[in-house]
Amino acid sequence: MAILTAHELTKQYTGEEIPALNHANLAIAAGEFVAIVGPSGSGKSTLLHLLGGVDKPTSGTVQLYDTDVFALNETQLAIFRRRQVGLIYQFYNLLPTLTVQENMTLPADLDGRKIPGAELSDLLATLGLTEKAGALPSELSGGQQQRVAIGRALINHPAIVLADEPTGNLDQRNSQEIMALLRAANTTRGQTLVVITHDPAIAAQADRVLTITDGKLTGGGGNGHH
Amino acid sequence: MGIINRLTKRTLQGEMGRTLLTIVSMGIAATLVVATLVGFTSSQKNLYEYSIQDTGGMQFVIQDVPRANVQKLRQDPAVTRSLAFSNLGTAALPKGYQNYVGNGANLVGMDPTALRQLVGPQLVAGRLPRTPSELVVPSDARSGKPIKLETIRLTIAGKNRSFRIVGVINGYHTFSSAYRWITYNDQPSTGTVSIAGSFASVTRLQQRVQALATANGVNQAATKISFNDRALSWLGAGGNLRDMVTVSGLLLFALIVIGLAAGMMIYTSINLGVRARTQRYGLLRSIGATPKQVRQLVYREALALVLPALGLGYLAGTGGIAVVLELLNRNFGNSKFPFHLYFTLSPWALIGSAVFMIIVTFLASARPAQRAARVTPLVAVRDNLATPRLRSWQMRTGLWGRLMPTPLSRLAAKNYRRNSGTRWTMIATLSVSILIFVGFTGFARAVLKDTVTDYGHGADLYFTLPDTPHFDTIATAIDRTDNVQASLATKRYDFQINKRPPGFASNIVPVFVVPDKTFASQFNGQVVLLNPSHRVITKGQRRQVWGFPTQFSGPLDFAELGKLTVSKTVPADTPLLRAAASYNGGVVISESILARSLKKTKIESPTVEYNIMLRDTRQHGVTFKKLQNLMPTDGYDVVANDEKSMALLTAIQVMVYGFLALLSLVSLANIINHIFANLLQRRRELAMLQAIGTTPGQVTRLLGLENGRLLLISLIWGSVLGTLLNQVLLKRLSTIYEVAFAIPWLEIGIVVFILFVVWAVFSLVSYRMIRRQNIDHWLRLT
């Protein structure tokens, strides 16, 4: 059963002749691991941001369960992102003034929810960050920072985790570790996962691979032009 | 601690340099607020204490209190101090005497304490009565003519009583209707009693005193009570609404100016912080922070900054005022003038400062908070989205860009043109800071400069007497008194001339008659025209005008004296001549000439004046007392009055300049904050320039050109608008006070100097920073 569906999703930036995303249709089932591949500038990140409610489409809809994401107001959309979406960026985007643990629990804190100690310890241990819980991002390696970002994305048990080139800034060993973690979340926790990648090896691990070229999505599994 | 508080704390700790700079800047603003409110309450207290001295520390007088209720009224818990005096009845006055204030000449009897406290401060001539047959009369008892210290008969309740006039009280003093005709009396009263009193709290004073009077049997109490309104109005408790409005309006105006300066400074600090953290807000938004939470984050950051700033403000503001008052008191102590400034630390001033600063901070943070809340989550991942959209005119090379000779300066012009959002915010805040400094400092300087006397200094002491046959004997005795350097005795008559020569404003020309000896020694035995000058302001410009034509000589045909030939016109430009000439000036003749020329036998008696210069002005009090024995009438110690005025003027000047200095510091902090925060914000851009081969020197020059242009434009706007503000304020004031407008070049010069120093320091600091910065570190940051 699809938990996330995108219908006729189009994004046209002002001043650009070609739409960044052109009538994309997509359906993602619960627990699915989807990889989105495509050349640079093809509209991968645009699609991901639209799916996560980070950006707004020119036309089209995104539905998570029964919720029309873009019918929500600003506050509702923020709460939607906080509870239903986990975002992972290529450049980690951690808050430099917060510790590892604080960065990870930030979405829960914003929600006024306290993460039980055991749950947090488990997550830190899973991510291999137990020893670094009190460290600042500047004291971590790139791989460790990305693990913190994964922890932050998973902390609220979101419906879907969206990762934009999560290994793009990492060496091969770290890339493998990060993907192993994401894969584990997908298999053991049933976490729905959408990953944008250039790496064929990562795409190969996915249940389904979607290709996007010049804003046109193929293999989306929904209705429309695919 | 909630996540918002934790984020706030960490953010501020993480940017300690910027945080401290902002706290110090806000601390200066808080100091200004605290100093203004504490200074205001202290000034209120000081002006109250100063004015209440006129009535011996008493706030009110209740007349016609039944004798049986006097003790009860005086022992009322609200009454902290009181004095009682007896009403001895309405007196019928002898010929030549009149009573101008109140219903009939009510004679009152006071004991020595009441006389000393209530009459002493208002005594303008003579002394206090020491026996029941001595009397003090109001100064207007003879229609403005000098009071003779003579014996008069008053008829009270049908009985005649003789009194010797020993003193004169100011006829228009604060409690005037309550006591004008005063004698000595230490016996219990048989009639009604008047009670002068004071309450500890002045809240609803008018109503409470009226209720007290009514409760103690005073009929029509509202008409029987007089207040020292002048003193009470300083505390906002006077009956005169206009005074209260003026005092409150002054405070409100000062607070608006401070609020504007402090608000802009806080706005700048918070706004630059928000701009620098835009990507962070985007990240928070992308992981689910609501706009409200982001707004709260900004507000809490501002609050976290204002609290330590307030602490600084309390310390510096109260400490500064206390030190200034102490220094002023020491200065007053040296001048032997019994004037003391009290330091008043009212809790309301402290609470008010905190409330004011917090409100200003919230208002100033509102727009940056809104801006932060509007940051889209996409900003977290796409740094280039933060780049403002450029309009087509911004893409064109402007005039400045075309005029620039080098690629670097052309780049600076391009940067300047394309950075319009930040640029206009900076220009607006800098211009307003400069406007405030130039406008208000220039205004204060013009006003304080114009408080210097219009006519120059006159005599050190002067005495006014009724006409006396001992005119020249007294003059000789004055000259022989210790410490008298010179004196000039004059009898002044106002005579009419039959034909007015050109340049004479009136047909009435004063004639100053001097003793023959003085006429020979000081005027070479020649009839002269004593010509006074004074300053007038026309079309905003100050100029000196003379009372008579400056070169006049020739005959003047007086109706009472016949023809007098003026040999020359003498400018009244020495202290004695200036004092003698007074405002109008006139013809100087000797007693013999008057006696020879006088056509009529009966002329109105003149006013006799003795103007005296002292060798040692510090001994003015002793000499004044000695001369009072010689002339126990209306005397005036000009030196004492000048000391008093100078003390007040010094206090006002110190307070005003202190206020302006702090205001200027706030403006300066704003400028520094603005420029340096902008530099920090552009570090990545500068690193990029360095990465492509721009040297630190070139980058510094680029920044210097951009900032120099920004400061120049702000300087022009701020100076022009500040000058206009200065002119408007002076024009408003000129309707009630003679002040002239002049372009405030001094203030503009100070601003130019300060901006140059800031620019030079900025160039130096930015050069050092750019030379040392790790380019790779900044380029890797997203």
TrEMBL record, chain A:
Residues 4-226 form the ABC transporter domain. One of its GO terms (molecular function) is ATP hydrolysis activity. Pfam families: ABC_tran (PF00005). Gene3D superfamilies: P-loop containing nucleotide triphosphate hydrolases. The keyword ATP-binding applies. SUPFAM superfamilies: P-loop containing nucleoside triphosphate hydrolases. It comes from the Bacteria. One of its GO terms (biological process) is amino acid transport. Keywords: Amino-acid transport, ATP-binding, Nucleotide-binding, Transport. One of its GO terms (cellular component) is membrane protein complex. PANTHER family: ABC TRANSPORTER ABCH.1 (PTHR24220:SF86), IMPORT ATP-BINDING PROTEIN (PTHR24220). This is MacB. The gene is macB.
From TrEMBL, chain B:
InterPro entries: ABC3_permease_C, Macrolide_Exporter_MacB. One of its GO terms (molecular function) is transmembrane transporter activity. It is found in: Cell membrane. The keyword Transmembrane applies. The chain crosses the membrane at residues 20-40, 250-270, 302-325, 345-364, 424-444, 654-680, 710-730, 742-765. It is a multi-pass membrane protein. Pfam families: FtsX. GO terms for cellular component: plasma membrane. Residues 253-377, 659-775 form the ABC3 transporter permease C-terminal domain. Keywords: Cell membrane, Membrane, Transmembrane, Transmembrane helix. Its main location: membrane. Belongs to the ABC-4 integral membrane protein family. This is ABC3 transporter permease C-terminal domain-containing protein.
